[in-house]
Amino acid sequence: MNVAGYIFAALAAVVHVYIFVLESILWTAPKTRATFGVKSEEEALTIKPLAFNQGFYNLFLAVVTVIGIVIAATGSAAVGITLVLAGTGSMVAAGLVLILSSPDKARAAVVQMLFPAIAVILLVIHLL
After folding, report:
1. What count of other Cβ atoms lies within 10 Å of the Cβ of residue 16?
2. Cβ contact 98:108 at 8 Å
3. pTM value?
4. What b-and-e string marks burial along 22-46, b requiring 16 or more CB atoms within 10 Å of the CB?
5. Computed from CA positions of residues 91, 94, 99, 105, in that sequence, does the dihedral angle turn out positive or negative?
6. SS3 category, 29
7. Count of structural domains within the chain
8. Where are the beta strands (DSSP E) in the chain?
9. How many degrees, rounded to 5, is the angle at CA 90 between CA 125 and CA 63?
10. What is the pLDDT of residues 66-124, one digit of tens each?
11. For the segment 42-52, what is each residue's pLDDT rounded down to a tens digit?
12. Boundaries of domain holding 115
């Protein structure tokens, strides 16, 4: 098992659970609004359903990644690494979409995709 790749995948999952908490639970809090550049509580309330939904996407990516790590650790390496790569690869793809659609949010995209990108690279190298 490529331990370093799975460690970075786990870190990516933690980041995405944190993003879930911000988007789906703490969306209207002043610090969360500032983090996402939402200027007013009224604006936050207007887009809250979209943020709530997006938060769950992040949670689901984290869950798939963690399930993959657990499955890999319990002996089904092929299934586990497949799930981890599906989860972390999707995290990287989502970060790239964020950069392309909103270049002003490149910093947030890098935070979102750094750990999963490292995990993908390490796990693919391990497979080669």
Report:
1. 28
2. yes
3. 0.91
4. bbbeebeeeebbeebebeeeeebee
5. negative
6. coil
7. 1
8. none
9. 100
10. 999 999 999 899 999 999 999 999 999 999 999 999 998 899 899 999 999 999 999 99
11. 999 999 999 99
12. 3-127
